[in-house]
Amino acid sequence: MRRGEAAGFGLPIAASLLVICIIVAFAIGRFPISLPELFQFLLSKLTGVPSGLSPTIETVILQIRGPRILAAVLTGSALAVAGTAFQGLFRNPLVSPDILGASSGAALGAVLGIFFSLDVIAIQAMAFAGGVAAVAAVYFIGSILRGSDTILSLVLTGVVVGSLLGACVGLVKYLADPYNQLPAITFWLLGSLSAVTPHDLVALAIPVLIGSLVLIAMRWRMNEMSLSEEEARSLGVPTHLIRATVITAATLVTSATVSVAGIIGWVGLVVPHLARFLVGPAFPRLLPTAMVLGGCYLLIIDTLARSMALVEIPLGILTAVVGTPFFIAVLREAHRSWS
Amino acid sequence: MRLSRRQTLSGGIATLFGRPALAEVGKIIDHAGRSVPIPPTVARVLPAGPPASILLYTATPDLLIGWSRALRREERAFLLPDVAARPEVGRLTGRGNTANLELVLKFKPDLIVDVGSITDTYISLADRVQEQTGLAYALLDGRIDRSADAYRLYGRLIRQEARLSALADQVDAMLRVIKTRVGVIPEGDGPRVYYARGQRGLETGLGGSINVESIEFMGAVNVAGGQRGGLANISMEQILAWDPEVIVTIDPDFARNALTDPAWRSLPAVRAGRVHLSPRLPFGWIDFPPSVNRLVGLWWLGKVLYPSIFPEDLRPIARNFYQQFYHVVITDDRMKQVMENQA
Fold it and tell me: A174 contacts in B (CB within 8 Å)?
């Protein structure tokens, strides 16, 4: 009973946390902007009266910090929503959005783009295409191999194809020019939002919003997927269609985030557990909560990444360093909600 | 003499297995303090990595076995055609302590040379290869102000001291002029420079990194020098907070995009046209590979950073450098292309 009541508050709590995080994130950064200056900026945008602030401050807020905060929220919520959907679909708490090879496919696409010295937009396009192609291949091979257990053969195919793609990334790194391409590849693989421009934000937002909306709209159907295959079928649930739709939508958002932000692990694995701890395992509530919490989590991580040190700290490193102890603590409390 | 114990041991092992001990021939101490036997004759020299390839080409193109990586067409256009076409020999270094010894032996070198930073990794690799193959393997310091020493040491190794000391004297003279001119700028008073790498210009070399050696050599203040290290990612906000006076880059995409990107344009340096793209043919003028190719870049940096102390036309200086070090005569038009970064 208590959990049920608390669950009702889970989403509002997460949403207010996100609002607070966004406000705080705007006030933090390597370029000093004071709170009064931020307020002055906001006021002038609302009233249309010139703020009298230096144009550099406006550039930082509108061109650099603002897009980056939005990108962090979008990326985090996309990875969390994809992770939650996959954990439900595969009925496995260890699954993350890259289980079907989206990240490794995107990594190979981007690394090849860097290797052939393409421009930034082409590298992002190759990453996106790589992620989608990898999952399509896994889905195709998995459905050919399908034995008694569809889910198991999909996951296993994903793992195998993922490690093959990982080996290909390793080969490209080995062949890359050590002075120029190799550092670029390494930075890319560690994940960062440091280079996000307003233009990238649009490229990120469209697929992420489409995919997330599809998943949110499917949240009632996904509840039915937690039944076993036979049970679901006997109730008339179109399991194949639901599975294909969820995988397509989750792949769309994962590939889009990876193409802009590089590889960011952990979020899609950890945040669903956190959300489950907060609102319980029922999808209609879980999915939106995970989405908001994911945005929060990555925004906090990215704010640390861009402000802690003179140099950027790669997101892939911070998410793991912050995520591991956090995950262990949550797991201690939350394993009950799985059983 | 940090290596004396290992050296004694290897000598002992060599004697044990009946191979001629290293002590029987003339020996030389390389820049790592290692003892390297002077080969009786040297007709073939193998570079251990890209910096060594370049130094060996400038010194003795006739002896160079091949290149660490095959040269691109636009690079070959500025080198001796027959030497530039020599095969790719791969890298001995750069992957930690791994050398494919069969590959080394296949090329039948009389001498192996590595140029770069002297660290324990490269020292142990050199020791191991020298012990296992019996080939002389010399480590030369790749820092800019050790360039002349590197040429002289190499000259003694190949018994062509006169030929190489002529080149070393030229380097000495060049560096003396540059140092004297830069010397008038009080320490820490040079222009504040941001060194931009990557298509978005957000990678840079931290203080003391090999990537910014030429910039720091010229007395400029590296804005990222507050932290020591290698290459790192930097946030745009941090660059705006640094507000550098000059931006030097090796990336043509970045040099072009910075002029229109609103974030970069909010920097006074960008609006004032102070984004400078370094020439890069046949090899980079300021950063990579970190070898003697950077010497001509010092003049270029001088003109970028201190136009009043470096007033002379760069073209004849660069043409002379290409003639002396790359052994090619470049027309004025071609030199202009190199300096304006036209392909």
Answer: 95
